[in-house]
Design goal:
Order of helices and strands: HHHEHHHHHHEHEHHEEEHHHHHH
Radius of gyration: 24 Å
Keywords: Cell outer membrane, Membrane, Signal
Shape: globular
Organism: Petrimonas mucosa
Helix content: 40-55%
InterPro entries: SusD-like_N, SusD_RagB_dom, TPR-like_helical_dom_sf
Number of helices: 18
Family: Belongs to the SusD family.
Subcellular location: Cell outer membrane
Strand content: under 5%
Strand order of the largest sheet: 1-3
Length: 492
């Protein structure tokens, strides 16, 4: 999977020049590839599926904007006044419907939805010869569509429902669609869970698996149970689904013993991996987060850094110095890349705290946007913490509720949580805090605060209103589609 990134479609047009008369201006098209004549073989299906995967690597998706939209409006990260103005708007909760990332994220996720719908619409035209291949193609496609919609509905709440049946509708509405969108998400992940393999080998590593589908189904249940949907019966569904994944030995999921190895290029599909966006250096399919989080003029790596996703100093101070995650989470000390005789430290001659998660000097690409380290959409520690959260919401602080969080804390070298020391509310906050320490800079923070209804409580530097629990429908989309309605928090 990691090595197949570009789908090449060849269009052959033959134009004949028949002397000096007007007919030479007429284009004679002898062959043309369309969805109607393209979907014939298994290879066609695989190529079309690859085009759906490819949408994830766009800068408007998980390569940049989705991750930043989940990080900047949090207490852990800030943009250091870098780059585009919208980054500061996100960080300081001053965004509007015209802020840049909303349209970029919305439009790119619908590209992903539309490509998935096209595959599902034409897959029955294909002559499959490999047993189970059709179900696998459909399963991976539905997983990706479910993933796109999960992010759309959590970001924007009221979004148009587009499936293979109505994908050609030009101006779909977003009014009254939320429950139907959630049902599609659950159905897509369920189908993928029941039809995909538990793991892959060789070039297929990186494809969606049944374990990834079950994990994302857990996250979907968890999200639907929390704010703003408050479907409390889904807490138990999330807890049961999470436990099923944790106990399923065929998936092979486990925590790495050493937290730093989770982010090593050499270990990108280790036991903690569940599902990632796949990158590869020197193949024109890398990404730039080493540069984005790297220290500007810091001699930290061969190609420099931008200091565009930095650590809030207050958050840096919250992590105990004995926490084994601290050295890999934050830049504490390093020898200069070009000047190894110079030692850089924070605090010291590094002025701001920075993330160290994405720094790997063994990851050497052709440029600042060509690093090969993958990006985790979800990993095993995320699942363990989701299980604790769901169990706490169902039964309060019990030994079962703290089992997941305590596994995460044990690896970090921290004392286990004792259930009798907590109420449901205080354990909820402890789980949120653990998620922030464990998963910072991985695009989860805004979603966690939203789901747990903790945004106003956790964000104290800036003024937070109810509207900040949902993103506005992008103004560009409202202008183009009269059937869209702005989220009520932002007016009509």
């Amino acid at each position: 999977m990691k090595y197949i990134y570009k789908v090449l479609l060849f269009f052959v047009a033959i134009t004949l020049l028949n002397g000096c008369h007007d007919s030479f201006l007429e284009e004679k098209v002898f062959s043309n590839i369309t969805p109607l004549n393209f979907y014939k073989t298994e290879q066609d299906a695989k190529a079309a599926l690859t085009s759906v995967y490819n949408t994830m690597r766009s800068a408007n998706a998980w390569q940049r904007q989705i991750v930043l939209a989940g990080e900047y409006p949090s207490e852990a990260s800030w943009p250091n006044f870098s780059g585009e103005a919208w980054r500061t708007e996100m960080d300081q909760f001053t965004w509007s419907a015209s802020s840049g990332p909303f349209y970029q994220i919305w439009s790119q996720l619908y590209v992903m939805v539309n490509r998935a719908n096209t595959v599902l619409m034409y897959v029955d035209n294909i002559n499959f010869t490999t047993p189970g291949m059709k179900e696998q193609i459909i399963g991976e496609t539905r997983f990706l569509r479910g993933l796109a919609y999960l992010y759309l509905v959590r970001f924007f709440e009221n979004v148009p429902l587009k499936t293979e049946e109505n994908m050609n509708e030009l101006e779909p509405t977003n009014e009254g669609t939320a429950d139907a969108v959630w049902e599609l998400i659950f159905s897509d992940f369920e189908y993928a869970k029941n039809n995909l393999k538990p793991k892959y080998t060789g070039a297929d590593v990186g494809r969606a698996t049944s374990g990834a589908a079950q994990t994302m189904l857990t996250k979907a249940y968890l999200s639907y149970a929390g704010r703003p949907w408050f479907k409390s019966e889904y807490w138990s569904k999330a807890a049961q689904e999470a436990k099923s994944v944790i106990d399923n030995t065929s998936y092979g999921y486990d925590l790495e013993q050493d937290y730093s190895s989770v982010f090593a290029l050499s270990n990108e599909h280790g036991p903690e991996y569940i599902f990632s966006v796949e990158y590869l250096s020197n193949k024109a399919v890398g990404w730039d987060f080493q540069t984005f989080t790297g220290i500007r003029n810091g001699d930290q790596q061969r190609l420099g850094g931008w200091s565009s996703l930095c650590v809030e100093e207050e958050f840096f101070e919250t992590m105990d110095v004995s926490d084994k995650r601290r050295e890999k989470t934050f830049v504490l000390s390093y020898q200069g890349y070009s000047n190894p005789e110079i030692t850089y430290t924070y605090p010291g001659n590094i002025s701001l705290p920075h993330y160290n998660k994405y720094q790997d000097r063994d990851d050497v690409g052709s440029g600042t946007g060509d690093y090969g380290q993958n990006f985790y959409i979800t990993r095993f520690s995320d699942l363990l913490l989701m299980h604790s959260e769901a169990e706490n919401e169902v039964n309060g602080p019990t030994a079962t509720a703290v089992s997941g969080i305590n596994r995460v804390r044990e690896r970090a070298g921290l004392a286990p949580l004792v259930p009798s020391n907590f109420t449901k509310e205080s354990l909820r906050e402890a789980i949120y805090q653990e998620r922030l320490w464990e998963l910072c800079a991985e695009g989860h923070a805004w979603f966690d605060m939203k789901r747990m209804n903790l945004m106003k409580q956790r964000i104290t530097k800036y003024s937070v209103e109810d509207k900040h629990y949902v993103f506005p429908i992008p103004q560009n989309e409202l202008d183009a589609n009269p059937n869209l309605k702005q989220n009520s928090e932002y007016g009509n």
